[in-house]
């Protein structure tokens, strides 16, 4: 299943209204009958969906399900911290999903589902969360508490890719960033232990 289709499927499990922040082409908002949000009017694509020109979730009083995908973990965390608390969120940070999960836990979100989709030569890690205390911590949280179970059909390919990327990164940060290096060592151990 493609990344955007996975995002739509996860979002449908939550309540309306659906708000797609950083909607870009509005595929997700259109599929859900939701509201597309962009910061700049020039980024609006088409008139067949409701558009709000705003910075994140700030103008809304209530959000059933917020979809925030394709941004960095810090930006997603900032959007979530500066708007109404949605009943459910569906998020995806292409570059740093491990950091996004930690932010979510720190902000009082509990991960309830995760899914994988191909994204170029890598994998998109799509996360659904609801308000609550995250019971997972450490390497298991950073890697993905639902992904590490191995239930996703793309698990083995994702696991192999994750091991290769982390091993390479570890060589670059071992002395310069000792905390991140330790995290990578823990994540590698967890991923390797899940070998079929």
Topology of helices and strands:
Elements: H1 3-12, E1 18-21, H2 27-32, E2 35-38, E3 50-53, E4 65-69, H3 73-81, E5 88-92, H4 97-106, E6 109-119, E7 122-131, H5 138-143, H6 155-173, H7 178-193
Parallel strand pairs: 1-2, 1-4, 2-3, 4-5
Antiparallel strand pairs: 5-7, 6-7
Helix pairs in contact: 3-4, 6-7
The total domain count is 2
CATH architecture of the largest domain: 3-Layer(aba) Sandwich
Order of helices and strands: HEHEEEHEHEEHHH
What is the assembly state of the chains in this entry? single chain
Give me the CATH superfamily of the largest domain: Vaccinia Virus protein VP39
Helix segment tally: 7
Mean pLDDT: 93
Structure write-up:
Helix content is 39%, strand content 22%. It has a seven-stranded mixed sheet, with helices on both faces. The radius of gyration is 17 Å and the shape is globular. The chain has two domains: 3-136, Rossmann fold; 154-196. Helix 3 (73-81) packs parallel to helix 4 and helix 6 runs antiparallel to helix 7 (178-193). With 196 residues, the protein is of the alpha/beta class.
């Amino acid at each position: 299943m493609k990344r955007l289709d996975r995002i739509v499927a996860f979002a449908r499990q939550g309540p309306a209204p659906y708000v797609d922040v950083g909607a870009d082409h509005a595929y997700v908002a259109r599929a859900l009958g939701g509201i597309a949000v962009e910061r700049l009017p020039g980024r609006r694509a088409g008139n067949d969906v409701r558009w709000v020109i705003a910075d994140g979730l700030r103008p809304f009083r209530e959000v059933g399900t917020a979809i925030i995908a394709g941004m960095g973990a810090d930006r997603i965390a900032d959007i979530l911290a500066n708007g109404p608390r949605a009943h459910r969120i569906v998020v995806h940070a292409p570059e740093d999903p491990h950091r996004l999960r930690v932010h979510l836990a720190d902000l009082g979100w509990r991960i309830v589902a995760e899914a994988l989709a191909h994204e170029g030569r890598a994998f998109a890690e799509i996360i659904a969360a609801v308000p609550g205390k995250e019971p997972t911590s450490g390497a298991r949280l950073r890697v993905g508490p639902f992904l590490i179970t191995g239930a996703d059909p793309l698990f083995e390919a994702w696991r192999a890719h994750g091991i290769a990327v982390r091993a390479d990164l570890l060589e670059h940060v071992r002395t310069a960033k000792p905390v991140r290096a330790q995290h990578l060592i823990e994540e590698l151990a967890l991923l390797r232990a899940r070998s079929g």
